[in-house]
Write a structure and sequence with these properties.
alpha/beta, Lysozyme-like, two-stranded antiparallel sheet, 5 helices, NAMLAA_amidase_2, EC 3.5.1.28, zinc
């Protein structure tokens, strides 16, 4: 495949060819007739503040060694997933087809609709809530969001903190929402901030 075509990616049964496929068992069908019109951004690092290791991928694939670090004990038996992970260097991994329901938002609601997993795509950014993200992550995220909007009827991009306030705080104040909006050139109404 030519390099430009690979960068742009193509969709095949809900999988984007520009991402490395890592199919997770933690997924299921979406409710019939529900449009997927929301993206929920998260941040994750395992152990907290450490990057580049296999632990996040292992978590989503149910193979995390919970004895490897004291902080992992609370994750024993947890079954979670996101559709995508954007690593610090911009590498993109996909765990669940976008036409399937990933297990990322938990108890959540957006604009009066509960269970955001039913109608959203979950994107994890390798990072620590409240801390800055890397330029390569913004570049990869913009490319991914444009691809998703070409494939799904997306209306909004929000953080986990916006759909589960009080319970979740990611991606947190280190995430630059205005920068994302400027790079995408989408209406500010699609994002959880008001331009100054």
């Amino acid at each position: 495949m030519p390099a430009e075509a690979r960068r742009q990616g193509r969709w095949h049964d809900g999988w984007w060819s520009a991402a490395r496929a890592c199919p997770s068992p933690n997924q299921g069908p979406r409710p019939p007739g529900v449009p997927v019109d929301l993206v929920v951004l998260h941040s994750i690092s395992l152990p907290a503040g450490q990057y580049g290791g296999p632990q996040v991928e292992d978590l989503f694939l149910n193979r995390l060694d919970c004895a490897a670090h004291p902080s992992f004990e609370s994750l024993r038996g947890v079954q979670v997933s996101a559709h995508f992970l954007v690593r610090r260097d911009g590498e993109l991994l996909q765990f669940v087809a976008v036409d399937r329901r990933a297990w990322h938002a938990g108890v959540s609601q957006f604009q009066g609709r509960e269970n955001c997993n039913d109608f959203s795509v979950g994107i994890e950014l390798e990072g620590l809530e409240g801390q800055p993200f890397e330029p390569a992550q913004y570049r990869a995220l913009v490319q991914l969001l444009r691809a998703l909007r070409s494939h799904l009827p997306l209306r909004h991009v929000v953080g986990h903190e916006h759909v589960a306030p009080g319970r979740k705080r990611d991606p947190g104040p280190g995430f630059d929402w205005p920068q994302l909006q400027r790079r995408l050139r989408w209406s500010a109404a699609r994002f959880p901030f008001s331009p100054g």
